[in-house]
Amino acid sequence: MAAIALVLLSAAAQAQYFQGGETEPGLPSGCVGSYPNITMCREKNWYLGDTVDICKPLIPYPLPGQQVYIKDPINFCINLPNPDSIFLKNNYYSKGLRPTVVQAEGFVQAFCSGPYLPPGAKPFPVGAIRSAHVMKNFTVPGQHYYQVHGTMDCDALNINCTQSFPGAYDDGGQYDDGPFISCGKEPYSGVDNSTSGNLGFKHYVEMAGNGLFCMRVCEPGTLVEGGACDVTHDTEGCEKYMRVKFTSGFDYVDLAAPGAVTTFSVSLPPLPSPTAMPSSGGGSGGGAGAPVNTVNPSSKSGAISRTWSCSAVFVLLFALYIV
Ligand SMILES: *[C@@H]1O[C@H](CO)[C@@H](O)[C@H](O)[C@H]1NC(C)=O
Ligand SMILES: *[C@@H]1O[C@H](CO)[C@@H](O)[C@H](O)[C@H]1NC(C)=O
Ligand SMILES: *[C@@H]1O[C@H](CO)[C@@H](O)[C@H](O)[C@H]1NC(C)=O
Ligand SMILES: *[C@@H]1O[C@H](CO)[C@@H](O)[C@H](O)[C@H]1NC(C)=O
Protein backbone atom coordinates (compact mmCIF):
# COMPACT_ATOMS: atom_id res chain seq x y z
CA MET A 1 0.00 0.00 0.00
CA ALA A 2 1.48 3.32 -1.03
CA ALA A 3 2.53 5.56 1.81
CA ILE A 4 0.72 8.48 0.27
CA ALA A 5 -2.52 6.55 0.26
CA LEU A 6 -2.07 5.72 3.92
CA VAL A 7 -1.69 9.35 4.84
CA LEU A 8 -4.77 10.35 2.90
CA LEU A 9 -6.86 7.48 4.07
CA SER A 10 -6.07 7.29 7.74
CA ALA A 11 -7.68 10.70 8.03
CA ALA A 12 -10.73 9.42 6.21
CA ALA A 13 -10.94 6.19 8.20
CA GLN A 14 -12.74 7.81 11.09
CA ALA A 15 -15.56 8.96 8.88
CA GLN A 16 -17.09 5.62 7.91
CA TYR A 17 -19.48 5.31 10.79
CA PHE A 18 -21.25 7.73 13.05
CA GLN A 19 -23.91 6.39 15.36
CA GLY A 20 -27.17 7.94 14.19
CA GLY A 21 -25.38 9.59 11.29
CA GLU A 22 -26.15 9.64 7.59
CA THR A 23 -26.56 6.24 5.94
CA GLU A 24 -25.55 5.16 2.47
CA PRO A 25 -28.31 3.03 0.86
CA GLY A 26 -27.79 -0.70 1.54
CA LEU A 27 -25.52 -0.18 4.56
CA PRO A 28 -26.32 -0.46 8.28
CA SER A 29 -27.54 2.70 10.00
CA GLY A 30 -24.84 5.33 10.41
CA CYS A 31 -22.52 3.84 7.77
CA VAL A 32 -21.42 5.76 4.68
CA GLY A 33 -18.84 3.23 3.55
CA SER A 34 -16.91 0.21 4.65
CA TYR A 35 -13.39 0.93 5.54
CA PRO A 36 -10.91 -0.92 7.75
CA ASN A 37 -9.17 0.86 10.59
CA ILE A 38 -5.78 1.53 9.02
CA THR A 39 -4.06 2.01 12.36
CA MET A 40 -5.24 -1.44 13.36
CA CYS A 41 -4.30 -2.84 9.96
CA ARG A 42 -0.73 -1.64 10.43
CA GLU A 43 -0.57 -3.02 13.95
CA LYS A 44 -1.90 -6.40 12.83
CA ASN A 45 0.18 -6.62 9.64
CA TRP A 46 -2.86 -6.20 7.34
CA TYR A 47 -4.81 -9.12 8.73
CA LEU A 48 -7.71 -8.27 11.02
CA GLY A 49 -8.44 -11.79 12.27
CA ASP A 50 -11.94 -11.96 13.69
CA THR A 51 -12.64 -8.23 13.54
CA VAL A 52 -16.22 -7.70 12.41
CA ASP A 53 -17.04 -4.98 9.90
CA ILE A 54 -19.80 -2.91 11.52
CA CYS A 55 -20.60 -1.48 8.09
CA LYS A 56 -20.93 -4.78 6.25
CA PRO A 57 -23.78 -4.35 3.75
CA LEU A 58 -27.23 -5.62 4.61
CA ILE A 59 -27.73 -6.92 1.09
CA PRO A 60 -25.82 -9.61 -0.85
CA TYR A 61 -22.60 -8.61 -2.56
CA PRO A 62 -20.95 -7.74 -4.86
CA LEU A 63 -23.13 -4.71 -4.29
CA PRO A 64 -25.28 -3.30 -7.06
CA GLY A 65 -23.50 -0.31 -8.56
CA GLN A 66 -20.05 -1.78 -7.81
CA GLN A 67 -19.88 -4.63 -10.34
CA VAL A 68 -17.41 -4.51 -13.21
CA TYR A 69 -16.77 -6.65 -16.29
CA ILE A 70 -14.71 -6.67 -19.45
CA LYS A 71 -15.93 -7.97 -22.80
CA ASP A 72 -14.13 -5.84 -25.35
CA PRO A 73 -12.93 -2.24 -25.64
CA ILE A 74 -16.43 -0.86 -26.16
CA ASN A 75 -18.16 -3.10 -23.64
CA PHE A 76 -16.66 -2.89 -20.17
CA CYS A 77 -17.20 -1.29 -16.76
CA ILE A 78 -14.67 0.06 -14.30
CA ASN A 79 -15.21 1.45 -10.81
CA LEU A 80 -14.68 5.15 -10.25
CA PRO A 81 -15.44 7.65 -7.46
CA ASN A 82 -19.19 7.56 -6.78
CA PRO A 83 -20.68 10.98 -7.56
CA ASP A 84 -23.59 10.18 -5.24
CA SER A 85 -21.51 9.03 -2.25
CA ILE A 86 -22.49 10.82 0.96
CA PHE A 87 -18.87 10.74 2.08
CA LEU A 88 -17.54 12.19 -1.17
CA LYS A 89 -20.25 14.86 -1.21
CA ASN A 90 -19.41 15.96 2.33
CA ASN A 91 -15.65 15.92 1.87
CA TYR A 92 -15.15 16.93 -1.77
CA TYR A 93 -18.03 17.93 -4.03
CA SER A 94 -19.70 20.28 -1.53
CA LYS A 95 -16.36 22.06 -1.08
CA GLY A 96 -15.83 22.52 -4.80
CA LEU A 97 -13.24 19.74 -4.84
CA ARG A 98 -13.07 16.56 -6.84
CA PRO A 99 -11.82 13.29 -5.33
CA THR A 100 -8.92 11.38 -6.80
CA VAL A 101 -9.40 7.68 -7.46
CA VAL A 102 -7.45 6.75 -4.34
CA GLN A 103 -9.30 9.25 -2.15
CA ALA A 104 -12.52 7.55 -3.21
CA GLU A 105 -11.44 4.08 -2.08
CA GLY A 106 -14.44 2.76 -0.21
CA PHE A 107 -16.89 4.86 -2.24
CA VAL A 108 -17.06 3.59 -5.79
CA GLN A 109 -19.59 3.41 -8.59
CA ALA A 110 -19.35 1.24 -11.71
CA PHE A 111 -19.37 3.14 -15.01
CA CYS A 112 -19.78 1.29 -18.29
CA SER A 113 -19.47 1.67 -22.00
CA GLY A 114 -21.72 -0.47 -24.13
CA PRO A 115 -25.39 -1.28 -23.73
CA TYR A 116 -25.20 -3.85 -20.92
CA LEU A 117 -25.24 -2.26 -17.47
CA PRO A 118 -24.87 -4.55 -14.44
CA PRO A 119 -27.37 -3.78 -11.66
CA GLY A 120 -26.89 -0.20 -10.44
CA ALA A 121 -24.14 0.60 -12.95
CA LYS A 122 -24.16 3.86 -14.91
CA PRO A 123 -23.06 4.72 -18.43
CA PHE A 124 -19.85 6.69 -18.72
CA PRO A 125 -20.31 10.40 -19.31
CA VAL A 126 -19.96 11.21 -23.00
CA GLY A 127 -16.35 11.21 -24.13
CA ALA A 128 -14.97 9.94 -20.81
CA ILE A 129 -12.98 7.04 -22.28
CA ARG A 130 -10.49 8.20 -24.89
CA SER A 131 -8.82 4.86 -25.67
CA ALA A 132 -9.14 1.24 -24.55
CA HIS A 133 -7.24 -1.96 -25.24
CA VAL A 134 -8.54 -5.33 -24.13
CA MET A 135 -6.61 -8.56 -23.81
CA LYS A 136 -8.11 -11.99 -23.17
CA ASN A 137 -5.60 -14.30 -21.54
CA PHE A 138 -6.97 -17.79 -21.05
CA THR A 139 -3.60 -19.47 -21.48
CA VAL A 140 -3.11 -20.84 -17.96
CA PRO A 141 -5.91 -22.92 -16.37
CA GLY A 142 -7.12 -21.34 -13.14
CA GLN A 143 -5.52 -18.00 -14.08
CA HIS A 144 -7.88 -16.84 -16.81
CA TYR A 145 -8.41 -13.10 -17.08
CA TYR A 146 -9.49 -10.21 -19.24
CA GLN A 147 -7.57 -6.97 -19.03
CA VAL A 148 -8.39 -3.45 -20.15
CA HIS A 149 -6.21 -0.37 -20.14
CA GLY A 150 -6.63 3.03 -21.65
CA THR A 151 -6.98 6.75 -21.17
CA MET A 152 -9.80 8.77 -19.71
CA ASP A 153 -10.97 12.37 -19.58
CA CYS A 154 -10.89 13.24 -15.89
CA ASP A 155 -12.92 16.43 -16.40
CA ALA A 156 -15.73 14.49 -18.03
CA LEU A 157 -15.64 12.11 -15.05
CA ASN A 158 -15.49 14.96 -12.51
CA ILE A 159 -12.50 13.35 -10.81
CA ASN A 160 -9.17 14.82 -9.79
CA CYS A 161 -6.26 13.33 -11.69
CA THR A 162 -3.59 15.55 -10.19
CA GLN A 163 -0.61 13.50 -9.10
CA SER A 164 0.31 13.70 -5.43
CA PHE A 165 3.96 13.87 -6.39
CA PRO A 166 5.84 13.63 -9.69
CA GLY A 167 6.01 10.05 -10.92
CA ALA A 168 2.97 8.89 -8.96
CA TYR A 169 1.26 8.71 -12.29
CA ASP A 170 -1.70 6.71 -11.14
CA ASP A 171 -1.43 8.09 -7.62
CA GLY A 172 -1.39 4.63 -6.08
CA GLY A 173 -5.07 4.42 -6.82
CA GLN A 174 -6.37 0.91 -6.66
CA TYR A 175 -9.69 -0.82 -6.32
CA ASP A 176 -10.21 -4.54 -5.84
CA ASP A 177 -12.44 -7.00 -4.04
CA GLY A 178 -9.85 -7.86 -1.40
CA PRO A 179 -11.72 -8.90 1.77
CA PHE A 180 -12.26 -6.55 4.71
CA ILE A 181 -10.40 -8.96 6.96
CA SER A 182 -7.29 -8.40 4.79
CA CYS A 183 -7.84 -4.64 5.04
CA GLY A 184 -9.58 -4.44 1.65
CA LYS A 185 -11.25 -1.10 1.03
CA GLU A 186 -13.74 -2.17 -1.62
CA PRO A 187 -14.47 -5.60 -0.17
CA TYR A 188 -18.08 -5.63 -1.33
CA SER A 189 -17.40 -4.67 -4.92
CA GLY A 190 -16.73 -7.35 -7.52
CA VAL A 191 -17.30 -8.78 -10.95
CA ASP A 192 -20.64 -9.15 -12.70
CA ASN A 193 -20.45 -12.92 -13.13
CA SER A 194 -23.62 -13.26 -15.21
CA THR A 195 -23.51 -14.39 -18.83
CA SER A 196 -23.75 -10.73 -19.87
CA GLY A 197 -20.67 -9.96 -17.77
CA ASN A 198 -17.78 -12.35 -17.11
CA LEU A 199 -19.37 -15.71 -16.37
CA GLY A 200 -17.86 -17.41 -13.32
CA PHE A 201 -15.27 -14.68 -12.71
CA LYS A 202 -14.91 -13.26 -9.23
CA HIS A 203 -11.97 -10.95 -8.69
CA TYR A 204 -10.80 -7.68 -10.12
CA VAL A 205 -7.90 -5.32 -9.61
CA GLU A 206 -7.93 -1.80 -10.97
CA MET A 207 -5.63 1.22 -10.95
CA ALA A 208 -6.45 4.67 -12.25
CA GLY A 209 -5.38 8.27 -12.11
CA ASN A 210 -3.61 10.96 -14.10
CA GLY A 211 -5.86 10.23 -17.05
CA LEU A 212 -4.92 6.52 -17.17
CA PHE A 213 -6.75 3.39 -16.12
CA CYS A 214 -6.23 -0.35 -16.17
CA MET A 215 -8.16 -3.28 -14.76
CA ARG A 216 -8.19 -7.07 -14.78
CA VAL A 217 -11.11 -9.37 -14.06
CA CYS A 218 -10.07 -12.87 -13.03
CA GLU A 219 -11.16 -16.33 -12.03
CA PRO A 220 -11.75 -17.23 -8.37
CA GLY A 221 -8.63 -17.80 -6.28
CA THR A 222 -6.39 -15.38 -8.19
CA LEU A 223 -6.30 -12.42 -5.78
CA VAL A 224 -3.26 -13.84 -4.00
CA GLU A 225 0.41 -13.11 -4.56
CA GLY A 226 1.43 -14.50 -7.94
CA GLY A 227 -2.21 -14.82 -9.10
CA ALA A 228 -3.60 -13.14 -12.19
CA CYS A 229 -5.37 -10.55 -9.99
CA ASP A 230 -2.53 -10.29 -7.42
CA VAL A 231 -3.40 -7.41 -5.11
CA THR A 232 -0.01 -7.33 -3.43
CA HIS A 233 1.53 -5.34 -6.30
CA ASP A 234 -1.42 -3.08 -6.90
CA THR A 235 0.35 0.18 -6.16
CA GLU A 236 3.01 -0.32 -8.81
CA GLY A 237 1.02 1.26 -11.61
CA CYS A 238 -0.45 -0.11 -14.81
CA GLU A 239 2.72 -0.18 -16.86
CA LYS A 240 4.60 -2.31 -14.37
CA TYR A 241 1.75 -4.43 -13.08
CA MET A 242 0.10 -5.17 -16.41
CA ARG A 243 3.08 -4.57 -18.69
CA VAL A 244 1.06 -2.24 -20.90
CA LYS A 245 1.80 0.89 -22.85
CA PHE A 246 -0.73 3.65 -23.34
CA THR A 247 -1.51 4.20 -27.00
CA SER A 248 -4.47 5.62 -28.87
CA GLY A 249 -7.36 3.63 -30.31
CA PHE A 250 -9.67 0.81 -29.30
CA ASP A 251 -8.64 -2.79 -29.86
CA TYR A 252 -8.94 -6.38 -28.69
CA VAL A 253 -6.66 -9.38 -28.71
CA ASP A 254 -7.17 -12.94 -27.56
CA LEU A 255 -3.84 -14.53 -26.67
CA ALA A 256 -5.18 -17.75 -28.16
CA ALA A 257 -4.80 -15.95 -31.51
CA PRO A 258 -2.07 -13.45 -30.70
CA GLY A 259 -1.44 -12.33 -34.27
CA ALA A 260 -5.00 -11.08 -34.64
CA VAL A 261 -6.03 -7.73 -33.31
CA THR A 262 -9.59 -6.56 -33.72
CA THR A 263 -9.74 -2.82 -33.94
CA PHE A 264 -12.89 -0.88 -33.18
CA SER A 265 -13.75 2.35 -34.88
CA VAL A 266 -14.96 4.77 -32.25
CA SER A 267 -15.98 8.36 -32.78
CA LEU A 268 -15.15 10.61 -29.87
CA PRO A 269 -16.24 14.16 -29.17
CA PRO A 270 -13.32 16.59 -29.15
CA LEU A 271 -11.75 17.19 -25.75
CA PRO A 272 -13.11 20.39 -24.24
CA SER A 273 -10.76 23.23 -23.51
CA PRO A 274 -8.86 22.50 -20.29
CA THR A 275 -10.02 25.81 -18.83
CA ALA A 276 -13.68 24.84 -19.09
CA MET A 277 -14.25 23.46 -15.59
CA PRO A 278 -17.63 21.86 -15.10
CA SER A 279 -19.51 22.81 -11.97
CA SER A 280 -18.30 20.70 -9.09
CA GLY A 281 -21.12 21.38 -6.65
CA GLY A 282 -23.76 18.85 -5.81
CA GLY A 283 -21.78 15.78 -6.60
CA SER A 284 -23.97 14.41 -9.32
CA GLY A 285 -21.93 15.85 -12.14
CA GLY A 286 -19.73 12.83 -12.55
CA GLY A 287 -22.06 10.55 -14.31
CA ALA A 288 -25.62 10.64 -13.13
CA GLY A 289 -27.98 11.17 -15.97
CA ALA A 290 -25.36 10.98 -18.69
CA PRO A 291 -27.47 9.86 -21.59
CA VAL A 292 -25.14 8.07 -23.95
CA ASN A 293 -22.24 5.72 -23.96
CA THR A 294 -18.73 7.01 -24.18
CA VAL A 295 -17.80 5.11 -27.22
CA ASN A 296 -19.91 4.66 -30.28
CA PRO A 297 -18.74 2.34 -32.97
CA SER A 298 -18.82 4.30 -36.16
CA SER A 299 -19.36 1.24 -38.30
CA LYS A 300 -22.56 0.72 -40.24
CA SER A 301 -23.60 -2.04 -37.88
CA GLY A 302 -25.73 0.23 -35.73
CA ALA A 303 -27.60 -1.51 -32.97
CA ILE A 304 -25.77 -4.82 -33.18
CA SER A 305 -22.46 -3.18 -32.56
CA ARG A 306 -21.76 -4.98 -29.32
CA THR A 307 -20.90 -8.16 -31.14
CA TRP A 308 -18.09 -8.69 -33.60
CA SER A 309 -19.89 -6.84 -36.32
CA CYS A 310 -17.23 -4.17 -36.26
CA SER A 311 -14.84 -4.79 -39.07
CA ALA A 312 -12.01 -6.93 -37.86
CA VAL A 313 -8.63 -5.77 -38.98
CA PHE A 314 -5.89 -8.31 -38.67
CA VAL A 315 -2.52 -6.80 -38.08
CA LEU A 316 0.61 -7.96 -36.38
CA LEU A 317 0.43 -7.32 -32.70
CA PHE A 318 3.44 -5.51 -31.44
CA ALA A 319 2.62 -3.38 -28.44
CA LEU A 320 0.44 -5.80 -26.58
CA TYR A 321 2.22 -9.07 -26.63
CA ILE A 322 5.83 -8.12 -26.87
CA VAL A 323 5.74 -6.15 -23.63
C1 LIG B 1 -8.43 2.16 15.26
O1 LIG B 1 -7.49 1.26 15.84
C2 LIG B 1 -6.70 1.87 16.84
C3 LIG B 1 -5.64 0.85 17.25
O2 LIG B 1 -6.19 -0.42 17.51
C4 LIG B 1 -7.61 2.29 17.99
O3 LIG B 1 -6.83 2.91 18.99
C5 LIG B 1 -8.64 3.28 17.45
O4 LIG B 1 -9.56 3.60 18.49
C6 LIG B 1 -9.39 2.67 16.29
N1 LIG B 1 -10.24 3.69 15.71
C7 LIG B 1 -11.56 3.50 15.50
C8 LIG B 1 -12.29 4.64 14.86
O5 LIG B 1 -12.12 2.48 15.80
C1 LIG C 1 -6.78 18.05 -6.92
O1 LIG C 1 -5.76 17.49 -6.13
C2 LIG C 1 -4.72 18.41 -5.86
C3 LIG C 1 -3.60 17.65 -5.17
O2 LIG C 1 -4.07 16.95 -4.06
C4 LIG C 1 -5.26 19.56 -5.02
O3 LIG C 1 -4.24 20.50 -4.76
C5 LIG C 1 -6.40 20.24 -5.80
O4 LIG C 1 -7.02 21.21 -4.99
C6 LIG C 1 -7.43 19.22 -6.21
N1 LIG C 1 -8.39 19.87 -7.12
C7 LIG C 1 -9.70 19.67 -7.02
C8 LIG C 1 -10.56 20.40 -8.01
O5 LIG C 1 -10.21 18.93 -6.21
C1 LIG D 1 -21.74 -15.37 -9.04
O1 LIG D 1 -21.50 -14.62 -7.85
C2 LIG D 1 -22.37 -14.95 -6.80
C3 LIG D 1 -22.10 -13.99 -5.66
O2 LIG D 1 -20.75 -13.98 -5.33
C4 LIG D 1 -22.16 -16.41 -6.41
O3 LIG D 1 -23.06 -16.76 -5.37
C5 LIG D 1 -22.39 -17.29 -7.62
O4 LIG D 1 -22.08 -18.62 -7.30
C6 LIG D 1 -21.54 -16.84 -8.78
N1 LIG D 1 -21.90 -17.59 -9.99
C7 LIG D 1 -20.96 -18.13 -10.77
C8 LIG D 1 -21.48 -18.81 -12.02
O5 LIG D 1 -19.77 -18.10 -10.53
C1 LIG E 1 -1.12 -14.69 -19.47
O1 LIG E 1 -1.42 -15.18 -18.19
C2 LIG E 1 -0.44 -16.01 -17.61
C3 LIG E 1 -1.01 -16.48 -16.27
O2 LIG E 1 -1.25 -15.39 -15.41
C4 LIG E 1 0.86 -15.25 -17.47
O3 LIG E 1 1.86 -16.11 -16.97
C5 LIG E 1 1.30 -14.71 -18.83
O4 LIG E 1 2.45 -13.89 -18.68
C6 LIG E 1 0.18 -13.88 -19.44
N1 LIG E 1 0.55 -13.49 -20.79
C7 LIG E 1 0.72 -12.20 -21.14
C8 LIG E 1 1.13 -11.98 -22.57
O5 LIG E 1 0.55 -11.28 -20.38
UniProtKB/TrEMBL annotation:
Residue span of the signal peptide, if any? 1-15
Q: What is the protein name stated in its UniProt record?
A: Uncharacterized protein
Key words, A-Z? Signal
